[in-house]
Predict the 3D structure of the following.
Amino acid sequence: MSTSFVYKAYNNEGKVVSGSLLSESETTAREALAAQGMVPFEIKAKKSGSQSQRVTSHHIEELTSELSLLLKSGLQINHALGVLVDIAPTDGVKRIISHILDEVNHGGELHKAMSAHPKVFDSLYVQMVKIGESSGRLPQVFEKLASNLQFQRELTKKVTQAMIYPCFIMAVCVVSVVAIFNFVVPSMSSLFESLQDIPPYTQFLMSASEWMQSYQIYLLLALAGGISLIMRWKDQPWFKNRVDRMLIGNPITKTAMLLVERIRYASSMNLMLGSGVPLVEAMAMAASTVKSTSIASQLTTANEGVSQGESIMSALSGIPIFDSVSTSLLKVGEETGQLDLIFGEISDRGRSTFEDWMLRMTAMLEPLMIVVMGGLVGSVVVIMLLSVVSINDVSF
């Protein structure tokens, strides 16, 4: 297993240089430095804060923001990366930064070193870094990337938070029904053993309890198998297409899906156009940030139309993520030559609309889920009470 080593050495010019590298042992690390023409006089293994190999979006956001600050402070890119290696929060982050630093120290370009980790740095990120390198504006590019990553992470967080409450209520409902059928109803069944004529609702309740006890293990296995298949298929194109069609075709989730994709696309366009990326190239990269494959396909077609001379307003107007207000703003942007500001405005408006939708949906879901849970659990309780009353022939 490779270990991260920090070193100080004399280079070919007799100057003291420092850095880090991954190696199997201290001996192989010294040999690797010697092969580069350096004479190490201090080398030691870097202690790790966390042995986790995970690299989350939050880690990448922090890494990008820290790079921006270090470069603005006047550090060279290799020195800035060396600092980040020392303060890396996990082994996974440290491994990636160390590889990038090693490539840069060998004369490689930063964006090419990052492109070797496509699961961490997507095509948009790599292209923006390439633009920053060529223009000499890396600090500003990293600052914009950090802001965009924070925006995207907050958007994902809001979507997740919107789903937590209904999922929690549904879980409580399921646990309550399972507990009633496994413990409460069986304990009451002895009350009805002496009865020859059992009411239909009582018989239904007892049969449902028996069925649950007999087949619940199979239901659990089926649920676990379904989750396992979803985790295995989640990155498959055909599975993504089917989920996209289901979510966009559902009137409940359609609005949210289209708003989220509008925000992703518009914020990416704002970032790239503001950094000087040509329109056609920016549209191609922004389309890759959209999660819905069907929407991404339509955006790619629109990009081809713009490359052939079609106006961006007419090219994007037929795509469902853009409403009439958005297309009107695009027309203004084309006429004024400030498309980057217009896409920023579309992104801000989309975010505000999404937050309003989420608040309304959450306000509607809370009482709806309570009614559903109360209806399921309450109906079982009412049937149990009626069954007990029927034993004594009590009438209301």
About this structure: The beta strands are 3-10, 16-23, 39-45. The longest strand covers residues 3-10. The radius of gyration is 30 Å.
